[in-house]
Design a protein that fits this description.
seven-stranded mixed β-sheet; 30% helix; alpha+beta; globular; 39 strands
């Protein structure tokens, strides 16, 4: 074997490179003309090929690449490109060598990467290993302690009652032993991630679904039964949206976790119903303390700065190659996310009504695996995400973090639409948690209403040698898709796969046996009615998966909070200092240096993106897309979350968060009945008090959903919100992010954020908070607080309809929600975005955060309008000035200082000392 190294560097004449990209190619024979490959890896403009790297042995460096046992996700693409130049390459590893300051704070995840500090001696790039033999167990011979230990040893995260149920199944099936595939399959199906055992035990999932059914919104096409929620649009089209977290993987390996977070929700859209096109992404990440005060010692915990930096790199590295615009992006911090971050990604899509509903496989349909090959990454992702994370999590299946490659998924984005329009598939699914077990196992459960599928694991294309069959069945390797291809459409489907350069393999058949069957026998293509041959790994009735024992959940009310927080009085003497504390807070500061790395204009459909203003550096609260060429139809997206609010008062925070997401849409002119919601809960499911808050949050949100007529149509619960490091337990506060999706027939009529006219008045509408608890200012002062001003649910519909009516009548000239940072931040952002100034008539009222409240720009003549709407609680804030100034009750604030504080924090947190 011969390994050739092609080295590229940034093309900056006169500048000594401090980072080198090395493409390692393994071939059987020497490459006769290496230069013929150079243009594959360097464009000669922004990058160039280097002859060598510094050879001085005294110069320190780190060269990072994937470990031998991990397939580089770029391998397949590079092999294909080299083949087109007439060079046969057997294996590929891409590495990066860092010198000087580039090494400072460099994060290397030892679970998947290796860092060389001397010239690497590479004998082969191919994975090496010894195949694990299938393990068999007689569960009936095990006692309680042995069953518990088996679950722990295999990282199944199954309770004793669940293990005992598997003992019963073994008896029913008449099996002397069961395989490791049997154990792993049930562990995946019954994981919290897939089965929502905790939520079902508390009855919460049903509460949300019942409320949505009761609202019976005519826009609703699909909710809670497929990969995404589906909402009617215009002209026979439908909008889709889905948001999901990758908290555990991001804590373990931020880059891989955040890449696959975004890739996962994109796949949810691609494979929802019979196929859809993604049209927008949403990114929200909450990191822990950068300077650890609340938790000074967390042995083995990931640095918050590393997570932040890797998040930016990953989101840009996945979203941009996919060609999907970024709608909204924000990063926040909170000490209780030091154990596990909140890593939330979302995608919006569009499809036809005919393709919007969940498909049903039919007897005889072919089980086709499409896209990337199956490897050793992403093992136990479903079960790991269902449990707490520790400093030892990665010492078992170290590859439970998936490794994403957007280029394969980008090809599927185009092929998927072609397959949809050609009617090739009866049903489609993406490979989420638990791989083949999850994707095809879920699909097979619906075959002709009775269920049935046969999968031959020996036919699965592999990118790693020596994989055990349970690993093949459970691997969460990314960029794979599962299709139920109609037999009569097989040739047409294969032609489409080939056209877009996608590998597609028939590995099974859908049946009406009511059973989930997996076996391994090379060369045998499954057929309906066949007898399983070779090694049988799983043969169980689908009905067994519905017998999951639900946990006995302890719910305990919290102790009554009797001590109220006290805050310094806000006066003209300290208003500037308080303002500096707010605008310089990480959660609300200028993050445009990250956001501008995410393409928000691709597809040419963005009407208002993640940033706005004359310098394009102020964060939007509402994203607006115009996804249909030549039509004014608008799709609107808003998201609300504030970790500090949830620490102070979790239930009130949930209500206010939902009001904020809805009001942001309504004040822009979106009809209340045209808004749908997604919930993403994050809770420590092992804490009885957290579960009490969770239950009360769901109850309150259901009440508000019914009161406003805005249904939840998709969501996800993450109940493993704790990390344990060196004996220190870190628990997230019971929290929920609310995302709203809306539609308007003409986006041009929406009331957007930027101020329009000198002399116009800003008016605050809605319930006016008076407390600082949970606010950005409170956080800056080191005070959490214990009680929020909750938006009155009984007033919500009247208020929302009122502001919506005025917005559509053209009374509002511009509008923004009053949320994190309060009115003060909205005024500062308004000055920054518009170039105008502002004179405020209020002072103390600038800092409380009135979630659900809005700040609207109106003409002086329009002020009289509000006297007829006392339910809107109007309060005049002040007047827009012609010159860029910030005046509070006659006191001129130093805008330069405010801007420095606002612009400096984010870069300091990401790139300061780690």
């Amino acid at each position: 074997m011969i390994i050739t190294r092609i080295i590229t560097v940034p093309n900056k004449p006169g500048v000594t490179p401090d980072i080198y990209r090395i493409i390692n190619l393994e071939t059987n024979e020497p490459i006769l003309d290496v230069a013929a490959l150079h243009s594959l890896f360097s464009d000669g403009i922004t990058t160039r090929v280097a002859e060598a790297m510094p050879s001085d042995p005294s110069v320190k460096f780190k060269e990072v690449m994937y470990q031998n046992g991990v397939i580089d996700p770029q391998e397949t693409m590079i092999i294909e490109l080299c083949a087109k130049r007439g060079v046969t390459v057997d294996a590929v590893k891409v590495g990066y060598r860092y010198y000087g300051k580039r090494m400072d704070g460099l994060y290397v995840n030892k679970a998947v990467h290796i860092a060389y500090t001397a010239e690497p001696q590479l004998s082969t790039l191919k994975p090496r290993g010894v195949r694990q033999e299938t393990q068999y167990y007689d569960l009936r011979a095990m006692g309680d302690a042995e069953l518990t230990q088996l679950s722990k040893n295999r990282e199944l995260h199954l309770s004793l009652s669940q293990m005992k149920k598997l003992v019963q199944f073994q008896g029913r099936l008449g099996l002397f032993v069961v395989s490791d595939v049997y154990l792993e399959t049930f562990a995946a199906f019954w994981s919290e991630h897939c089965f929502h055992t905790l939520w079902k035990a508390l009855g919460l999932f049903q509460m949300l679904k019942d409320a949505t059914a009761k609202i019976n919104n005519p826009n609703l096409l699909s909710a809670f039964i497929d990969n995404a929620g589906v909402w009617d649009f215009y002209d026979g089209l439908a909008l889709l949206f889905k948001l999901e977290t990758h908290n555990s993987p991001t804590q373990s390996e931020p880059f891989g976790g955040q890449m696959t977070k975004l890739g996962g929700v994109i796949r949810d859209i691609l494979e929802n119903g019979l196929g859809a096109k993604p049209i927008g992404n949403v990114e929200l990440t909450v990191i822990g303390e950068r300077v650890r005060k609340r938790y000074p010692k967390l042995e083995g915990a990931m640095s918050a700065s590393v997570i932040a930096r890797e998040t930016v790199r990953a989101i840009a590295g996945y979203g941009n190659p996919m060609g999907i615009p970024m709608d909204l992006a924000r990063m926040m911090n909170h000490p209780d996310y030091s154990g596990k971050p909140f890593a939330l990604g979302g995608t919006v899509g569009i499809t036809t009504h005919a393709a919007a509903k969940k498909g049903t496989p039919h007897k005889g349909d072919l089980v086709v695996l499409v896209g990337g090959r199956t490897g050793n990454d992403g093992l136990h992702g479903a079960t790991i995400s269902s449990g707490g994370i520790t400093e030892k999590t990665d010492t078992g299946d170290s590859t439970h973090v998936q490794i994403g490659l957007p280029y394969t998924e980008q090809k599927m984005m185009r092929a998927g639409v072609a397959l949809r329009d050609a009617g090739c598939c009866s049903a489609r699914n993406d490979f989420g948690a638990a791989g083949i077990v999850s994707c095809f196992g879920e699909m097979g459960k619906g075959t002709d209403g009775v269920g049935g599928i046969i999968v031959n694991l020996a036919l699965v294309p592999l990118k790693c040698a020596d994989m055990a069959r349970w690993q093949i069945a459970l691997s969460e390797s990314q960029e794979r898709f599962g299709h139920a291809v109609k037999p009569e459409k097989y040739a047409e489907a294969m032609a489409i796969y080939e056209k877009y350069g996608l590998e597609a393999t028939v590995i099974g058949v859908f049946t009406d046996s009511g059973r989930f069957q997996m076996f391994s026998d090379p060369g045998v293509v499954p057929s309906v009615g066949m007898q399983l041959s070779g090694e049988i790994d799983l043969d169980v009735p689908y009905a067994y998966f519905d017998e999951c024992p639900l946990p006995s959940v302890e719910v305990r009310a919290p102790a009554e909070k009797t001590q109220m927080a006290t805050y310094p009085e806000i006066t003209l003497g300290n208003v500037e200092a308080m303002g500096l504390a707010v605008v310089g807070h990480f959660d609300v500061c200028d993050q445009s240096s990250a956001t501008t790395q995410y393409d928000s204009t691709v597809q040419g459909i963005t009407y208002q993106g993640p940033l706005y203003g004359e310098n394009y550096n102020v964060a939007s609260s509402l994203a607006v897309l115009r996804p249909v060429f030549g039509k004014p139809y608008g799709a609107t997206v808003s998201i609300s979350f504030s970790p500090w609010h949830f620490e102070a008062d979790p239930v009130s925070a949930a209500v206010n968060t939902m009001m904020d997401a809805i009001a942001t849409q309504v004040v822009a002119g979106v009809q209340l009945q045209d808004i749908a919601l997604a919930d993403n809960f994050y809770t420590d499911g092992a804490d009885p008090v957290s579960l009490w808050y969770l239950r009360e949050q769901v109850k309150a949100l259901v009440d508000l959903s019914l009161a406003t007529g805005t249904p939840f149509i998709t969501g996800k619960d993450s109940s493993a919100g704790r990390g344990t490091f060196g004996g220190v337990i870190v628990k997230v506060p019971p929290s929920v992010a609310i995302t709203a999706l809306g539609k308007v027939s003409d986006a041009r009529r929406l009331v957007l954020h930027r101020w329009k006219g000198v002399g116009n008045i800003l008016v605050a509408l809605g319930s006016h908070a008076t407390r600082l608890d949970g606010s950005i200012l409170s956080s800056s002062l080191g005070i959490t607080g214990t009680k929020l001003d909750r938006f009155p649910i009984e007033e919500a519909q009247c208020y929302l309809e009122g502001i919506g009516r005025l917005a559509r009548q053209g009374v509002f000239i511009s509008a923004v929600p009053i949320n994190r940072g309060g009115i003060f931040l909205r005024l500062f952002e308004g000055i920054e975005a518009s170039g105008f100034g502002f004179e405020a008539e209020i002072c103390t009222e600038l800092f409380p955060e009135s979630l659900g409240g809005v700040l609207v720009e109106v003409s002086l003549d329009a002020l009289q309008t509000y006297r007829g709407f006392p339910e809107l609680n109007p309060r005049v804030v002040g007047t827009i000035l012609p010159e860029r100034r910030f005046v509070v009750q006659g006191k001129v604030l130093n805008l330069n200082l405010l801007r420095q504080a606002w612009q400096g924090t984010f870069k300091e947190v990401l790139y300061g000392n780690t």
